Each structure stands twice: as C-alpha cells, then as structure tokens.
C-alpha cells in the first residue's frame, strides 16, 4: 500500500456554474488521483486544498521556534510550529506527492510557497553543517516521487520554448522538492488558457493523456 499526498494550490474552485471559471490544474489532480485509485484501490490519499485553506505565513516567532532545539522550545514556540508539524507529518508519510499548481506571475501561487515555507525546516527536512563547505544543506528524507501538474495562461515555458527563461514555476518546485525527499520528479501541464482557442483544447487533452500514461507507468 502506498500513501499519496495530494496538494491543490489554485484559488479557483471546481464547482463553478460557468465551466470556464473552474481550475484546470485541480482537474488534472483529480484525473491523476482517480486513475491512480482505479488501479491501486488499497492506497490512501491525504488531500489539502491550499487555495481554499491557505497556510499561515511564517513569522519572526516561527523562525525563532524552528531554530530552537526541540527539547528547549517554550510552550508558545511549540504552538508556533503546530501547523508546520502537521504539514510535515502528512508529507513524511507520503510515497507519492501530487502537487497541482497554476502559474501566477511566472511562479507558484503564494499559498503553495507558504506551504513550502512552513514545511522546510532545519533538522526536520534538512540538516545544515558548515563542515560540508559551500553546500552545507542536505535533505533528510529520500525515496519519494513528486508529480507536478500545472496550468498556465501563456505558452512556451518548456525546454527550448519562447518563454523558457520566464518559467519560475516548475524549476522552483523541482529545486525545493529535494528537501521533501523527492528523488523522482515528473511534470505535466497545459498552456494557452488565456487564448481559449484550439491550442488550449489540444494542450489540455494532451496533458490528460500524459497523466493517464504516467499513472500506468508508475502503477
Ligand atoms: C493572479 C494570476 C496570475 C497569472 N499569471 C500568469 C503568468 O504569469 N503566466 C501565465 O502564463 N499565466 C498566468 N496566469 C493564468 C493562469 O496561469 C491560468 O489561468 C491557469 O489556468 C490558472 O490555473 P487554474 O486553472 O488551475 O486556476 C495568471 C492567472 C492569475 C489569476
């Protein structure tokens, strides 16, 4: 049995009466999870919609608590880390992490960045040791797979694309994924949402086919 952590981060819902208002990235997440569970009935999914339930931004008190050794934390410092601990416990148990993300301002939504900020913690997700020289940070966890499912309004964000240099969504998440213990990373997405033309329809269709193929490959 595998544990799946499913994280959505669009602020759009999926139940709007006007279909075009619905989140595309969330629909990709649904496709992935439905296909996965139809093949792996026994697997367990933990779900979070960060768009509808945004994480708290970290604060100076949060940082002080995170950098205080666990045994020395005051009650209020322990309290400051409760949300972070909850996210960590969900993530640490997961074999597969599915993150869906719209492109907002060429990067990830603030709610998803807030989740990463709550998640990535010294002696929890990474160790810091100056004896390692110029690269003192190393992940603690390992062996996880991350599937990133995205939607963007413009196009050309892939390798060799006309906007490759403007893409701070996938590359940023891929970089951070190391500190979740991810050593296998997949990314599938659609583009052209803002053009609402045939290119968008084909892009969404292809993404859904790629998701089905990935589920077959991983199952
Ligand atoms: C606040 C905001 C910022 C956006 N910024 C970009 C952007 O920088 N580049 C882009 O290609 N599309 C951008 N878009 C378009 C979204 O990426 C697109 O609508 C996507 O489908 C949203 O994901 P969702 O359908 O899952 O909600 C933006 C949309 C919003 C609402």
TrEMBL record:
Enzyme nomenclature, EC number: 1.6.5.-, 1.7.1.17
Database matches in InterPro entries: Flavodoxin_fold, Flavoprotein-like_sf, FMN-dep_NADH:Q_OxRdtase_AzoR1, NADH:quinone_OxRdtase_FMN_depd
UniProt catalytic activity: 2 a quinone + NADH + H(+) = 2 a 1,4-benzosemiquinone + NAD(+); N,N-dimethyl-1,4-phenylenediamine + anthranilate + 2 NAD(+) = 2-(4-dimethylaminophenyl)diazenylbenzoate + 2 NADH + 2 H(+)
Domain Flavodoxin-like fold: 2-213
Gene3D superfamilies (alphabetical): 3.40.50.360
Subunit structure: Homodimer.
Cross-referenced HAMAP family: Azoreductase_type1
Name of this protein: FMN dependent NADH:quinone oxidoreductase
Species of origin: Marinomonas rhodophyticola
Taxonomic lineage: Bacteria, Pseudomonadati, Pseudomonadota, Gammaproteobacteria, Oceanospirillales
């Amino acid at each position: 049995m595998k544990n799946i952590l499913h994280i959505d981060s669009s602020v759009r819902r999926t139940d709007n009466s006007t279909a075009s208002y619905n989140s595309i990235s969330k629909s990709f997440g649904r496709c992935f999870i439905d296909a996965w569970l139809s093949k792996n009935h026994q697997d367990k999914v933990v779900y979070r919609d960060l768009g509808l339930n945004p994480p708290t931004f970290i604060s100076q008190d949060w940082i002080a608590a995170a950098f205080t050794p666990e045994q020395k934390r005051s009650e209020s410092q322990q309290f400051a880390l409760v949300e972070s601990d909850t996210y960590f416990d969900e993530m640490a148990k997961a074999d597969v992490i599915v993150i869906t993300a719209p492109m907002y301002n060429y990067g990830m939504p603030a709610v998803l960045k807030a989740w990463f900020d709550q998640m990535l913690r010294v002696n929890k997700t990474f160790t810091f040791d100056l004896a390692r020289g110029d690269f003192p940070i190393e992940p603690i966890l390992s062996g996880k797979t991350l599937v990133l499912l995205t939607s963007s309004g413009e196009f050309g964000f892939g390798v060799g694309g006309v906007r490759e240099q403007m893409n701070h969504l996938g590359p940023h998440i891929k970089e951070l994924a190391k500190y979740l213990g991810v050593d296998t990373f997949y990314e599938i997405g659609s583009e052209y949402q803002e053009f609402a033309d045939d290119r968008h329809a084909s892009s969404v269709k292809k993404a859904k086919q790629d998701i089905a193929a990935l589920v077959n490959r991983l199952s």
